[in-house]
Amino acid sequence: MPKNEDEIQPIDANFDEVVSAIVGTPKVKKAAQNLLASDRGLPKALAESDELHLGNVTLSCAVLDDANNTRILTQNGFLKAIGRHPFATGGTGGSIEGMAPFLRAKNLEPFISEDLKRSTTAIEYIPRAKMSGVAGVGYGYRASLLADVCWVYHDAMVAGKLLPNQIHIGEACSKLLRALTNLAIDDLVDEATGFKNIKIRRAIEKIIQDYVAPEKQIWVHTFDDELYMNIFRLNGWPYTEESIKKRPGIVGKWTNDFYDRLAPGVRSELHRMVPRDANGRPIAKLHQMLTREIGHPKLKEFLEGLKTLMIISKDWKQFQTLLDIRYPHWDTPPMLPFEEFKRLQTE
Asked: I need a labelling partner for 262 at 20 to 30 A (CA). Which of 80, 116, 195, 328 fits?
């Protein structure tokens, strides 16, 4: 009698064998490994790259999400950098036991400081790339350790203490030391992984958080008459009660420019947060959206600085030049003041 295909047949295996068969597939096994790694509370890679170019070698690196945003070179990358085989001995792909394998040779001991001994433990982390690492765990060393290790091999080579099978490592380390001259390895990692942009974004987010209030604050007289009197004087405009009530539209544009110079990202966030009526018009002043603790005091300090520049300027053009020197836009390199002041004195 033929078997019914819809009938569930008994499984001739014990529980452990069934589980092993289920999670033994590559995708499921990898997911289980990543879950186990995550449960261990290991730091995660915020950013990664296989394109850190140093001298004539290309290395893999990462920035971790721990408190210090530790910059690391992967274990394979570190070994590759100093001219060793890029895979750890034994095929495990990583080890955190004792001193790093590249410093265990007895002949290197006289050249290794106690501080270096304590800092060579491999760092375990969770890679962003799903197929990286071993059992969901990546291994690496602090990027700043590279120069210290290179000096060990370099000094041992100069002292004639390297073994024949270590000479190529000493030569590689000497080349790396030349490549590292005047270059901060952490900065190179930030550049390669894109963490440099993450740092900038974080800094701007922190500034916005400090400056911009979540809701409208009580109105306080901020842009005072002295400021507008100087704006009118520098432009040769008559300062009357009527002219103040109907200020030229360009003044609003200049005010926005002032906010752009106050702190990065603040003006756009103020415009986003300011309450508006049904037609989209603001129903509060931008400065009412500044925090009382930081934002508003910083604006008052900034405006006092503007008034000082206005007082010493003879016209709007001269004020704009001084403004660009003292308060440049945040995306503009600061001007060198000496030549500018020298030019202003001759005008």
From this structure: 195
Question: What is the phi-psi region of residue 194: left when phi exceeds 0, alpha when psi lies from -120 to 50, beta otherwise?
Answer: left
Phi, psi values for residue 154, rounded to 5°: -65, -50
State pLDDT tens for residues 289-310: 999 999 999 999 999 999 999 9
Q: How would DSSP label each residue in 322-343?
A: HHHHHS--TTSPPPPHHHHHHH
- Model pLDDT for residues 32-63, shown as the tens digit of each residue: 555 555 556 899 998 998 888 887 788 889 99
Residue 70 backbone phi and psi in degrees, to 5: -55, 130
The dihedral through the CA atoms of 217, 220, 222, 225 has a sign that is positive
- DSSP 8-state assignment for residue 291: -
Between CA 40 and CA 44, with CA 41 as vertex, the angle to 5 degrees is 120
- pTM comes to 0.56
Q: Contact, 194 vs 71, CB < 8 A?
A: no
CB burial of 228-238 (b: ≥16 within 10 Å; e: otherwise) equals: bebbbbbeeee
Contact 47, 33 (CB under 8 A): no
Measured distance CA(53)–CA(200) in Å, rounded: 22
Phi, psi angles (nearest 5°) of residue 212: -100, 130
Distance, in Å, from the CA atom of 281 to the CA atom of 271, rounded to the nearest integer, reads 11
At 282 the three-state DSSP class reads: strand
